[in-house]
Amino acid sequence: MSARWWTPLSIALILLSFIAFGFLSRRPLCIDSKFVEKIDRVSESGQTATVYRCGLHRAVPYDEEWSQSVIPLSRRIQSVEKFLESLAPQKGFVRVTVTEKDQPIFRIDDHEISMSLSFLTTPGSIEKALIKSWLRDHSGTSLAEHSVFEESLTDLLLFAVDGELSLVDPELKVGPDLNRTERWPFVVKSMAGYCRSSWRQFEHLKFCQTENLDHGVRDPNIIPLSLRPLLSQSMISAYMNLSLREQRRFLSSMISVLASLKFEEKEIGFSSMDSSQQSFVDVSFEISGVMRALGSAARAFEAKQSRSSFYFSKWVNEFTSQIEARGFSDQIGEAQLDHLVAFVGINSERHVAGLSKVAAKLTGAAIAITDKEQIYLLPSVEPVKKSLFNKLRASRMTLVNCGGVTLAELDKYSEMTDRLTVVENCDESVEINFEGLVSGEVGRFSLQNPQVSFVEIHLPSLHLALEKRKLNLATKLAMNFDNQNLNQALGWESPTYDANIKAYKANSAIEAFQVYRPRQKIN
After folding, report:
1. Distance between CA 33 and CA 43 in Å, rounded?
2. Angle subtended by helix axes 309-325 and 228-240, to nearest 10
3. Using CA atoms in the order 355, 360, 363, 369, what is the torsion angle rounded to 10 degrees?
4. CA triplet 390, 392, 395: central angle to 5 degrees?
5. DSSP class of residue 307?
6. Is the model's pTM score more than 0.90?
7. pLDDT of 290-303, one tens digit each?
């Protein structure tokens, strides 16, 4: 009888022993980290669940959510820590507070990191925060005051960790695109355009949610951050152009450079002037300021005759080349374009969508639309203020108007381009196909728009005629081309009709007008 009870009792005791052993040997909830001291997760009701770094051996109450997430989170943290530690140790422990509230929070104050749960569970966010904290620890200047540079440098280091920029915006569900090359000045965005971009700064998500973007509300520190993709792509491309050995040497030199990095002080610019007075000059200053700061740091580093200085200088030279290849030439306030379409007295908005599609097809072409007050840097359909620009210069330009243009007005466009096509658009029901003009093919434009009158003008030749003949600058260029004084001044002869493009080719001593179609007569 006793043997019959002893067997199940023994089995039960053995099972209880295994359970007790499992409970006693269970590793407490902790973060495998050398940088992160603790992470607090604050619920919507205000309750806090904490995990400490494992080295502290702090016992904490069991938490189901931490139990499921602490191991993959530790792996993410360890990956970036191992990389940063190979460059330089963190100077102090980091504390992280995670809130479960719906509103987006992402903030770094020295060694205190605050973020909402949506960021913690999104790839790249905790890694980005740790890199930013590490950069601020080792920088000789306040990186927080140069946010676009800090963002781009963080992007570079995040890319260097595992060879990709694995960031995801928790709301847009997409990350920065390194495959689409950003060009100057098309990288510059309005507030609305910036807030809809996957390159927007995490710290600005709440601002982008709450501000009335469609009515031009803007934070003066945000517009420069639209430059981030230009700087980040240039930094990463410069890094990729180094050999693996050069990449390691460059990264190892970064600490010494950061400690001596200094930015020029500026009395004007986005950080100190009212947003209504900001200009394209100030956006240019942001880029040229970064280039000058890095160049000065490289020269100072070389003066110390450090072995690593060569690799940092090589990266700076590559970075400068990448910036210039993307269209920035340090000409303050000037925008160099391939084609500019200007609307005078004509509603430009109805043409934006169509021209944006054309620009998207012409990869790498710098195309813009402008009217009296704003400019669209295509293919973006978000306008920015025309007043931002000090000067616009285009290889070719199209002027769309109704009612004619005076010779004085035409001559002014010679400051912006050599080749100008004037297109008459008095009937808004007539849809104009600009694809031929934007592609630089006037004949193709003529065939695409058989009912539209136009003239292609070589402005330097027209300027020469105006100087020599002393014409009345108030004279309007009529699209029927029957102005005798103007024709005489140009040495105008009978034109040649080209049936292939259904337009006329002018014959004149001074080749100001080259290809044209006169206004069709109404019977």
Report:
1. 23
2. 130
3. 30
4. 160
5. T
6. no
7. 898 898 888 887 77
